Amino acid sequence: MKFFVDTGDINEIRDLAATGLLDGVTTNPSLIAKAGKPFIPLIEEICSVVTGPVSAEVAATDYETMSKEGAKLAQIAPNVAVKVPLTPAGLKVCKELSDGGTMVNVTLCFSPLQALLAAKAGASFISPFVGRLDDISQDGMQLIADILTIYDNYPDFQTEVLVASVRHPVHLLEAARLGAHVATCPPDVIRKLYHHPLTDKGLAAFVEDWKKTGQSIL
Length: 218
Ligand code: G3P
Hints:
alpha/beta; TIM Barrel; eight-stranded parallel beta barrel; 51% helix; 17% strand; binds SN-glycerol-3-phosphate
């Protein structure tokens, strides 16, 4: 399973990239606004830190402008995945960019049929938002299961299921159990994955017992 981090914070990205566990980055206009930095140079910087896909989202909603924005974002670096919304204009741009060899991440997916459309449009990634579905009392993980089933029925589809709007480690656990290809998580969710109280307790005991031996490995 690939781990992407969902942030526009370059320091967080550098920190997580150093763990060797980071396979890519996703951003969106809200995260860029939170980062408070000029968009294009920020994406350039992220692409210089991370070799995997870096999602950069278009801002326009009409086809003509979105198409130009997508072409511009695609020029930033070979590992840019242009992010487009799951709308008729977004999928038209998706098809265009995919046909030209650019990775596309189709975002704001909330139904299995939307995901089917994105795969047909040649998306590299489909981003179903599990947390936002859970927020309105719908089952976000059921959406992931449905999309994976549909995609498995059609081996010609190359689209990877990128679980988005991940809010806590259990989202990631369930996504991994289902076999989702990728999950994009806020930095704090990735950090939480390391922790278990029994690990801390066990390590403290080993450290104490090792001291009693009076030995040194080095
Ligand atoms: O990048 C899109 C997605 O991960 C947003 O998450 O928490 O704003 O629903 P959230």
